[in-house]
Design a protein that fits this description.
The protein has 177 residues and is an all-alpha fold. It has one domain: Tetracycline Repressor, domain 2, CATH 1.10.357.10. The protein has nine helices and no strands.
Length: 177
């Protein structure tokens, strides 16, 4: 509900959950406490997803797919407003550690030849979360693993058609006499 309407009231959240408003207030003293719990759950899930992906030790392609699949699942489970989430200093610091871990992984992927070296600095680190968010929120008909397949393929190969060399028979036959 909060993803769709960040201003949703505790009463409407309780009603959607099928509980009384007092039940929510017994667990969370105020709306900010509820939001803090949501943000805590999201960043914890991201940290677990990064650990599960084994970004430092798994083969790069395997780790990339695991990471993307895990984060797609997190984004679908905890679709919160990141700008609001990051106003919490403790959550921001934990997220910054996650970003640094992914950046180090992308440097490893580049060093091992999976990613191109001729891209602008931090381009891969800016592009990957955008693709993950698109897959998480616009390709909801795909399971996280299937959406990860699309993201990883797009991330590694782009969306352009493969270039054909002049000696390629298909290219020669279409170029005319």
């Amino acid at each position: 509900m909060l993803a769709a309407d960040p201003g949703a009231s505790i009463a409407s959240i309780a009603a959607e959950a099928g509980v009384d408003r007092r039940t929510v207030y017994r667990r969370f003293a105020c709306r900010e406490d509820l939001l803090a719990a949501i943000y805590e759950s999201r960043v914890t899930a991201i940290e677990e997803g990064i650990r599960d992906a084994r970004l430092r030790e798994a083969p790069v392609a395997v780790a990339l797919h695991r990471y993307v699949e895990n984060v797609i699942a997190v984004n679908r489970t905890w679709p919160v407003d990141l700008a609001r989430m990051l106003t919490d200093d403790a959550i921001r610091r934990r997220r910054d550690v996650c970003v640094a871990e992914v950046d180090a992984f992308l440097e490893r992927a580049t060093a091992e030849g999976l990613l191109r070296r001729d891209q602008p600095e931090r381009w891969a680190g800016a592009l990957l979360p955008e693709l993950v968010n698109l897959a998480a929120h616009q390709q909801t008909h795909l399971a996280p693993a299937q959406a990860a397949d699309v993201v990883v393929d797009t991330f590694l190969h782009g969306t352009g058609a493969p270039h054909r060399r002049p000696q390629d028979p298909v290219a020669e036959s279409s170029s005319g006499p």
